């Protein structure tokens, strides 16, 4: 029976529309092959929304997203809007979207593809086979804790304050996403904290340990964040799934991503307790190459695969997209950012065509 899905497309700015066009073409053909009917609705976000409406996240966009089964986002931002006040800058649209949809879990895979191993700055033997998923808490911790601000003390000195805070329920809900994610992978979860120094981390470790009793099939370990950073570059293959708070996750997910060496290849997913998730590449709007048909669309295409796997529960369709990406790389097709000697240099559109050809071959 045909499954129907409403997908909100947010192409955004810069290379966004170019890479989104490729992902939509891929989804259309995947829809035909897996009996999935996608109803696409495009909406404005970021600079494009500011230009059209004066706001980075018009309420109509948020409403459209809320009524959909999943949101596929490209990227926002660009030089044109850099001097605007922070509450009406493109980035405010992204934060508003996350808050508006209650997205508290950010999933960032870092997988080394054998064809791109030389793009990593680390030695082949260290990174070969790396396949890590970082699950980062997105709406709590030190980025949102109160009190926050810059205050003046009685002696007239300025004092900057942020507060790292997690409640048991916040820890438990991100913990559940992490255990479920680890279950779908190799069944290993490493929780990262700073429990030797921070009380908030002691509570984190305690709750995650208690929660593990409900997931006896997942092997749980703990690391302090400084050691985790070290282990990520020393022996990254020991990791399968990592769960951590907002600040540590922000830093560790970028470090893990860079093991792969290529920002144009990295997708991500942001999920809430219910309602649609948002699926987007890790990279930004790349204004330096926008409109030149030079962008790598593969992170966007892999974000569509994550949407199928984690947002719509269609793992076979997701597998098919990931295999097609693997295959175009295998046949030597490359965009400029991942180009190496002896490979075929393609533009964004031609990379999309190569993917479609592979998908049509079946
Ligand atoms: P960026 O990720 O846009 O670009 C960094 C470098 O990587 C650039 O040289 C760019 O050309 C290259 N690059 C990025 N994606 C690529 C792709 N798919 N194919 C080929 N090359 C690619 O980061 P930046 O330059 O720091 O930021 C540019 C704008 O994007 C800013 O306005 C920033 O605020 C915004 N931004 C948005 C997001 C988002 O939408 N989630 C994330 C990061 C930055």
Task: Give a verbal description of the structure.
With 362 residues, this protein is of the alpha/beta class. The chain folds into 2 domains: 1-101 and 275-362, 3-Layer(aba) Sandwich (Isopropylmalate Dehydrogenase), CATH 3.40.718; 105-261, Isopropylmalate Dehydrogenase (3-Layer(aba) Sandwich), CATH 3.40.718. Helices cover 41% and strands 21% of the residues. The chain has 12 helices and 14 strands. It has helices spanning 16-34, 46-53, 59-66, 90-100, 124-127, 168-184, 199-211, 225-234, 246-258, 298-311, 315-330, 348-361; strands spanning 3-12, 36-42, 70-75, 105-111, 131-137, 149-152, 158-161, 188-193, 219-224, 241-244, 267-271, 277-281, 333-334, 344-345. The chain has a 10-stranded mixed sheet with strand order 2-1-3-12-11-4-5-10-8-9, with helices on both faces. Strands 6-7 form a two-stranded antiparallel ribbon. Strands 13-14 form a two-stranded parallel ribbon. β1, α1 (16-34) and β2 form a beta-alpha-beta unit. The longest helix has 19 residues, at 16-34. The chain starts with a strand and ends with a helix. The relative contact order is 0.17. It binds nicotinamide-adenine-dinucleotide (NAD). The site of nicotinamide-adenine-dinucleotide has 21 residues, from α4.
